[in-house]
Amino acid sequence: GNSVTQMEGPVTLSEEAFLTINCTYTATGYPSLFWYVQYPGEGLQLLLKATKADDKGSNKGFEATYRKETTSFHLEKGSVQVSDSAVYFCALREPTGGFKTIFGAGTRLFVKA
Amino acid sequence: KAGVTQTPRYLIKTRGQQVTLSCSPISGHRSVSWYQQTPGQGLQFLFEYFSETQRNKGNFPGRFSGRQFSNSRSEMNVSTLELGDSALYLCASSLAGGDTQYFGPGTRLTVL
Question: Which of B94, B100, B107 to mutate: most A Cβ within 10 Å?
Answer without folding.
Answer: B100
